[in-house]
Each structure stands twice: as C-alpha cells, then as structure tokens.
Write a structure and sequence with these properties.
Blueprint (H helix, E strand, L loop, with lengths): L8 E3 L2 E3 L4 E6 L4 E7 L3 H20 L2 H16 L2 H12 L3 H18 L7 E5 L3 E9 L2 E5 L5 H14 L3 E5 L6 H13 L5 E3 L6 H7 L5 E5 L2 H11 L5 E5 L5 E4 L5 H13 L11 E5 L3 H12 L20 H16 L3 E4 L14 E4 L6 H4 L6 E7 L2 H9 L3 E2 L1 E5 L3 H8 L6 E4 L11 E2 L1 E2 L2 E2 L1 E2 L1 H6 L2 E9 L7
Parallel strand pairs: 7-8, 7-10, 8-9, 10-11, 12-13, 12-18, 13-16, 15-16, 18-19
Antiparallel strand pairs: 1-2, 3-4, 5-6, 6-24, 11-22, 14-15, 17-21, 20-23
Amino acid sequence: MEFNNNYHMLIGGELVAAEARLDVVNPANEQVIACVPDAGAAELDAAVAAARKAFPGWAATPIAERKAMLDALADSIFANVDGFKRLLTAEQGKPHHEAQGEIMGAGYWLKAYTALDLPETVNEDSDERLSITRHVPLGVVGAIAPWNFPMILAMFKVAPGLLAGNTMVLKPSPFTPLCTLKFAELAKKILPAGVLNVITGGDHLGPLMTAHPGFDKISFTGSTQTGRRVMASAAPTLKRVTLELGGNDAAIVMPDVDVEKIAEQLFWAAFTNNGQICIATKRMYIHKDIYEPLRDALVAYARTVKVGDGSEQGTQIGPINNEAQYNRVLDLIQDAKDNGYTFLLGGEKAEVPGYFVPITILDNPPEDSRIVQEEQFGPVLPLIRFDDFEDVLNRVNASDYGLGGSVWGSDEDKAFELAQRVQSGTVWVNETQHLSPLAAFGGMKQSGVGVEGGLEGLLEYTSAQTLVRRKKAAFVN
C-alpha cells in the first residue's frame, strides 16, 4: 500500500475525491504534508445514502460473518504497521514507538471485539407465552473521531458499531485524517460497499453530521464543550448519542510509596502522548510526607526526557498536534506566570519550528487556579500538596469532570478503598490508562454520556426489542 499520497474518501465502496481540498500539517515542522478532500453537504448526503442502502443486508448478515470481516480488518492493519506508524507520526506528532503502539492497539481492538456476542434474554417461557428480549442494530451511525489517537479511537466506534449490525459514516479530525483514509482503502477490499464510509472535512462537517436526519446515532469523542453542541444538535431528531468527552484526571499519591521507584511511572501517567490523552493525569495530589522528595524526583526524571520530532530516533515526547491546542496550552502557562505560581521546570515557549512546548511542572498552585481546574491537554502538570485524605477526596471530586483517576500506594487495600470513593468512570490503582475492549469505559458528570468498550459499549449501538408470542391462542386451531 502507498502511504504517502492518493488520499481519497470511501463512499459506497468507491474511493472518491471532493472539489475542495484541506491541507494537513506536520506539527513537528508546520509544513503541509498532504491534501485531503474537504467534504460538504453533497458528499455527506451521498455517504449517508450509501450507508442506508447497505444497512438491511449488513444487519441480516450472520454475526459470525461480521466477526470474520472485523478480524480480517485487524489482520490488514497488522500487515501494514510500518506504513501506518510513519504516517501517524507525520500527521499527529507522537514518536514512532507510540505510533506503533497505537496502530497495533487499533488492530487488537477490532480483533478482541469479536469475542463478544449480542445477548438474548428469555423473560418467560411458560405454557402461556414465550417472551424474549434481543438487541437489534440502530441503523446508520455517524462516528466522529479525535486527533490525539485517531486510529484506535476510531476503532472504538467501528468495532462495536459494525459488529452490532449497523452501517457507519466515519469522520476523522481534519488535523489527522491520513491514517483513517488509508484504513478506508483496506476496508474497501473487505467490507461490502456502503457498510463503512469515510469522509474528511473541516470544522463545518461535524455540525452537518450531527444535525443530519439520516443518522440514527452519533458517536463522538472530543472536548466537553463540543460535546454539548453535539447533544444539542442531535436532540431535534432524538438521535442516540455516545459522548466520550474531556477529563481532569487526578492522581492521589499516598505517603507509603517508594519515591524513587514510582517517579518514572507517575511522570508518564501525565506526559505520555505529550499529555494529549483524555485520561492523562492532569493534577497530581501528593501527600505532604513525600511531597518534596517526589517533586524533586519527578523534575529530575523530566530533565532526562527528550522532546523533539517524533520521527527522530530517541524522541520520547513530540509536539502538540495543532496550532489551536498549542496556543491554549501556552495561554494556561502564561496565566500561571501572570499569577506568580512557582515553576519547577519549563514555562518558556520553545523557540523552534513546530508546536513544541517544553515539559512544564508547577509547584503547588492554588486549588482554584486555571491550571488545576481546567483540562490542559498538553505537557503541563501541577503538583499539589495534601495532608488529609478526606480533604483530598473532596478536592478531587469537586471537579465538573469525572472520566478517570488513579490512586498510588504500597497498601493496595487502602488504595483500593480510596479509589472506590473517586467519582470517575474509571479509577486505577497503581497504574493508569489501561483500557480493555472487554471493559466498559465512560465518564461521569460532564465527561460524557454512555460508554465505550465491553458488552455495555456494544449494546450502545443497539435497541432492545422484546418479542412476545402467545401460545395456543383461542383463535388458533
């Protein structure tokens, strides 16, 4: 497969272009690396019509056959890992080793989902009647994927949506459309025409999708602010929605940890993918008994980490993905400087091409500061001192967000007890960011609606239908 050019949308089983084009920028050097179709209403209508046409046949396809095609899609990704890896680094910015991990994860997600089945419940089987509840596909799904993990988060939607018997129109972020378009080429060879359609476009395309009457469901991953608009746009036609939104994940570090052994792991809990993860640690609460030594250990380790172009050997952290997010992170740093907060590391703009922000760690900013209360989605971490567990739980749970969180301690039972009181959809003990295709993942509060992953995530793409058959009715001979 050729990865460096020929980017086309997939509509109704055909690779198609659009009259308008959209530039894709490498965030490491701000150079245009490709142009992709910039779809409008006409292309969207065509994609929805193709998905609608394909739906009856796909819904009627035995689930075993649907699983086999998802499995084949996974194998096709695995067969092209190197090309996908390099392309992902070029459009997203993450280092090659992280890009490869994402591509492998995307294939694994598809393959692992084939272990699931749609349940059927017998409610009653008596002499009088048979009552069964089954789960049937919704119809056509509009899937909108983000730029931080464009491949694997797209598979979060493709796997359950198609396995359940729906057809789909998938839109990647305009910042990271390239790998998704190449995935569409693979899908063209495996899936029946119209089952999966992939379209690309700028900021105008998302609202067109969420308001389009041809969709039965919208699955969106992105910011909470945009998620509110998605929900409002879907309301007039009562589309189902799954919204995986922002987070302000807190880590609570108990006083019994081994500071030297845990510092590296805590660092990457916050700075993997340059902090551009919805479940990255975004505020770290450290018990007063170990605050200074852990603070110093984190800063010392951070000084050893190489920031640079993700395509260069040895790079551990790449650039921010796009200019808008880059400016937002710089704005949060400037706010912290304006308020006189203490910087342990970083805080200065990198004077090099690309959207680079140096690793930045702040020393105990106030609880009501923007850097503590807002989701930075970049390489900036506030360390916050605490001395009372009830107080730190209140501070952690006061957030409007509730996506993920973590508790770290040598006393695993005590840490687990504390984790159960954190108001987040997923809480990890002594690790973070571990997700499984077989486990539900979703947010509380303003971090989302619905879940992805596991049987619960699969059922989000279905309607429950109860069938009741009266036995030996009086009018039956």
